From TrEMBL:
One Gene Ontology cellular component: cytoplasm
Family: Belongs to the peptidase M1 family.
Cofactor requirement: Zn(2+)
EC number: 3.4.11.14
Organism, as annotated: Apis cerana (Indian honeybee)
A GO molecular function held by the record: peptide binding
Residue runs in coiled coils: none
Keywords carried by this UniProt record: Aminopeptidase, Cytoplasm, Hydrolase, Metal-binding, Metalloprotease, Protease, Zinc
Cross-referenced InterPro entries: ERAP1-like_C_dom, Peptidase_M1_aminopeptidases
Residue spans crossing the bilayer: none
Subcellular location: Cytoplasm
Protein name: Puromycin-sensitive aminopeptidase
Domain ERAP1-like C-terminal: 84-397
Record PANTHER family: PROTEASE M1 ZINC METALLOPROTEASE (PTHR11533), PUROMYCIN-SENSITIVE AMINOPEPTIDASE-RELATED (PTHR11533:SF174)
Amino acid sequence: MSTWTEQQGFPVVRVQHRQEGTDRILSLSQEKFLADGSTDTGNNSWIIPISISTSKNPEECVLKDLLDEKTKEFRVKDVPEDHWVKINPGTIGFYRIHYSPEALSLLLPAVKDHALPPLDRLGLLDDLFAMVQAGHASTIEVLQLMQAFQHEDNFTVWSSIVNSLGKIGVLVSHLDFEDSFKAFGRNLMRDITNKLGWDPKPNESHLDTLLRSLVLGRMAALNDEDTIQEAKKRFELHVSGTTLLAADLRSPVYRAVLSVGDTDTYETMLRLYREADLHEEKDRILRALGAIKDETLLAKVLNFAMSDEVRAQDTVFAIMSVAMTYKGRVMAWDFFKENWKTLLDRYGGGFLISRLVKFTTENFVTEERAKDVEEFFKDHPTPGTERTVQQSVESIRLNAAWLARDKDSIKEYLITHV
């Protein structure tokens, strides 16, 4: 127990394997997991409870043991060469798993046909994505894994997939192959989009309702034409009062319509905002306004956010919505710098200005932007945001390093697989 209580952090367990007759030999090694990809110089090690399941019975542990050395081999009996082995079934152990490409490839069919339970599918993606961000695996590996999720139907798993797509999308949002990446995302999500549709099914679970909103929102962000056209139809019926949108569909519909909207669309959204009685509805609209692509209108959104029509505590959400796209991010950061004194006077050292700093800065992807953020706050001390600024600068530099490592390979993969 002392290895878990007397040192900081947690381990990553790396998995290599080889076949000996009918047995699978697993070589497991451990080191401290560092999200920034740096090397652990502290010689940390843990006594790690290892549990293992196989394709013969994914729900049953066939081996339980301890990884109490830096590297140790485990023999799993009666595992044919083409069968998979899963470490940490149920994702209950407090450690990351990094499979070799060969070991991971054996697990892909189990993701596709749901032989792996949802928690294991989720853990597989989360662990690999963490390895990619830390520079220990290629983005191509996670794109290949994602393609195995085309028939996924679990809300929690899709939440992780959408989060991962969003982070890669931020990385490539200013590059000439962004459209190819969006096409990749649309292809990945086509099956679940068609399965869920727009209208609730009889007796569907609340998780399916949440999943529909998540999927339609992401498909709109990926410029899916069918989703956007259907959103426009439903929006027109909503505005006219013919058929009001269900509450869970309003955010994705608003963002979809605004993403292809013009001045008339913007003015219609402002009218809905002004007519709304519920703060929940006003909040939805504020968080959607930044989806509009026209830079003149984005500037209007930023100015509207600071107006008397928007409660002070809600201003940050409108500005944050603008920062969700590449052009908007640049505009929101410039707006923050220009209005820094006003924002500081309004929010003091509270959590709202910290959130604003985080969302307007952390998704940049160049060293130049990291220096810009660093130098601005050095010259403009903002009480209460010191830790947030440090984290944002770290995130920008991690993004820059990630992009430098994988930009060319991502482009090549998308060209050949989309």
